[in-house]
Specification:
mainly beta, two-stranded antiparallel ribbon, 107 residues, elongated, binds zinc ion, 6-stranded antiparallel β-sheet
Length: 107
């Protein structure tokens, strides 16, 4: 089944399940092929970094985000909080709206 990806970069999402349940963050990247998103400060994993003096990288342990499944997040409506994405059609244009309060989710 093909999952249509309605989450976009810079959306604010809330994690609804898993280790980081309850966390909220900005979408940094969307991976439509795997239906995953990279969310700021969510699913942080430790990664060892090799020192590279030429690029002024000290090396050691760095933390970085790892992608989580889109089905594990909900969009956060600026008006009413975590919600689902609905759609509104205006002529040719399709915009995303909050299903709870109908506020537009695209600026
Ligand atoms: Zn809303």
């Amino acid at each position: 089944m093909h999952t249509r990806v309605d989450i976009k970069r810079n959306d604010t999402v809330k994690v609804i399940t898993g280790r980081d349940k309850g966390k909220q963050g900005r979408v940094l990247r969307v991976f439509p092929d795997t239906a995953k998103v990279l969310v700021e400060h969510v699913m942080m994993v430790k990664k060892s970094v090799r020192p590279n003096p030429q690029r002024n990288i000290k090396g050691g342990i760095a933390e970085q985000e790892s992608p989580i499944s889109i089905s594990n997040v909900m969009i956060v409506c600026p008006t009413c909080g975590p919600s689902r994405i609905g759609h509104e059609h205006r002529g040719e244009k399709r915009t995303r709206i909050c299903r709870k309060c109908n506020a537009p989710l695209d600026k």
